[in-house]
Design a protein that fits this description.
The chain has 2 domains: 51 residues, no CATH class; 86 residues. The protein is built from 5 helices and no strands. The longest helix has 53 residues. The structure holds zinc ion.
């Protein structure tokens, strides 16, 4: 198979931008010195242009790579948002559970030992207050962390 025949088979693909860069160079070099191939390539070009108008993926390696990169960026973005939402749900649920457990324990202690205002139980009362504060602090810190994280993402975008 001569160089001319080999190149001729690649012309349609060349017009559609579907060649590797090595093949592209080969075609470009041959077309410069071969009028027959040059004319055929010109004949293919308008057709390839029409093909590109269709919304189906074209066999262009550049286009495929750009699409893959976009899809990957979108997936990473999605994963990040999922993480933020899961973290927020977890910390809110955690703070809420602490508050409920706290309230139940408080009920149990007050029924068993009487008034919590009794000075003998002031220490117990303080530890419960600290426990509640810790729960709300965890929720608050989580909310602040998420806000900072989201602001950082926005400034990077
Ligand atoms: Zn030729």
């Amino acid at each position: 198979m001569s160089e001319h025949d080999k190149i001729r088979e690649l012309l349609a693909l060349a017009a559609a931008d579907a060649l590797t860069s090595a093949e592209e160079t080969q075609v470009a070099e041959h077309v410069r010195s071969c009028i027959s191939c040059s004319n055929e390539l010109d004949a293919w070009r308008p057709l390839a242009k029409e093909l590109h108008r269709f919304p189906t993926p074209q066999p262009s390696s550049w286009l495929v790579q750009a699409t893959l990169a976009r899809a990957e960026a979108k997936l990473t973005d999605q994963a990040e948002h999922d993480w933020n939402r899961r973290a927020l749900i977890f910390f809110v649920a955690f703070a809420w559970l602490l508050a409920v457990a706290d309230w139940l324990a408080l009920q149990f202690v007050s029924r068993r030992f009487g008034s919590l205002l009794d000075p003998h139980f002031s220490q117990t009362w303080i530890s419960f207050a600290a426990f509640t504060a810790l729960g709300w602090l965890a929720g608050g810190v989580a909310a602040v962390m998420l806000a900072i994280r989201q602001r950082g993402e926005r400034s990077l975008a």
